[in-house]
Specification:
By secondary structure, this protein is of the alpha/beta class. 46% of the residues lie in helices and 10% in strands. It has an eight-stranded parallel beta sheet with strand order 7-6-5-4-3-2-1-8. Strand 3, helix 6 (136-148) and strand 4 form a beta-alpha-beta unit. It starts with 17 loop residues before the first helix and ends in a 12-residue tail after the last helix.
């Protein structure tokens, strides 16, 4: 398995100053928007056969970060979601577990209690999610609280205002600090691609996050109008591919928000297979940030098994 050690030493010169970092990021090749969108659309038309579809459905289920990030979240809702992550379809115990349950820091202990002994991880958003508008000490305290409560993974948001203002070193140093505060927990860095405006910015953010020590780069919070798209995910997949070619370090990718159907999930899996290959077709390296996606995958899985479409009443409501 490729190394996950920090690539920071390889970029010591690049990250030595604001000017050096800016020169590097703005020296990355520009993105051909038309070509990127055309390739994403073309890969999205691929069809797969029944056996491959069954495999793809199970793989997609195993890659889901089952998520609830609402102000109205209660311990009961989080317990029910965690139980569903462990046993997505009570009528079929061959159904894979999801990869993780993603909750706010104050709900980590509740989720951990239900998930203890299972393979399902607890992921927690942190750093003043979703806006990221807080002082660094607050963001670090948020992160440490989540880890202390038992979080296996931290999903942090970057300071988009600083990034868009060209203050790349501030963003870099915040990611480094959160990575340190995360300890053994894996760090997913959320760019909020819908707010970055251009594909060039998404490419720059991807490299910035990876150089700073991200274990995953993630498209979105799911809280804005534009979240994961095939094009922005393809661009991020190309970035992790090129980063590994240069450093030997493999980084995961997590599209989040707006992926609701089995058809959507299969399109993204095709993007992964065709862009970075089998090394990323595993939940250690690719995740879906989703809540409603699991239900559609379960209904399609039941249809393949029984020949009948059972409908939404036959799966639990999140």
């Amino acid at each position: 398995m490729p190394t996950t050690a920090s690539a920071a030493p390889a970029f010591a010169d690049v990250t030595a100053s604001e000017n050096a970092l800016r020169r590097f990021l703005h020296g990355l090749p520009g993105v051909d928007a038309v070509g990127l969108e055309a390739r994403a659309a073309s890969l999205g038309t691929r069809s797969i056969k029944t056996t491959a579809k069954a495999y793809a459905i199970d793989l997609a289920i195993s890659m889901i970060d089952l998520t609830t990030l609402e102000g109205a979240d209660t311990p009961g809702k989080v317990r029910a979601l965690a139980a569903k992550a462990v046993n997505p379809d009570p009528t079929d115990r061959t159904t894979p577990t999801t990869a993780a349950v993603c909750v706010y820091p104050d709900m980590v202990a509740t989720a951990k209690e239900v998930l203890r002994g299972s393979a399902v991880k607890v992921a927690s958003v942190a750093t003043a999610f979703p806006a990221g508008r807080a002082a660094l000490p607050v963001k670090l305290a948020d992160t440490r609280d989540a880890v202390a409560a038992g979080a296996d993974e931290i999903d942090m948001v970057i300071d988009r205002g600083a990034f868009l203002a060209g203050n790349y070193m501030k963003v870099y140093e915040e990611i480094r600090a959160v990575k340190e505060a995360s300890g053994e927990a894996r760090l997913k860095v959320i760019f909020e691609t819908g707010e970055l405006s251009t594909y060039d910015n998404i490419r720059r953010a991807s490299w910035l996050g990876m150089m700073a020590g991200a274990d995953f780069i993630k498209t979105s919070t799911g809280k804005v109008a534009v979240n994961a798209t095939p094009a922005n995910t393809l661009l991020m997949l190309e970035a992790v591919r090129d980063f590994r070619a240069q450093t030997g370090v493999q980084i995961g990718v997590k599209p989040a928000g707006g992926i609701r159907t089995t058809k959507d999930a299969v399109k993204f899996l095709v993007l992964v297979n065709e862009t970075v290959g089998e090394d990323w077709l595993d939940n250690h390296w690719f995740r879906f940030g989703a809540s409603s996606l699991l239900n559609d995958l379960l209904m399609q899985r039941q249809k393949l098994a029984t020949g009948r479409y059972s409908g939404p009443d036959y799966v639990t409501v999140d």
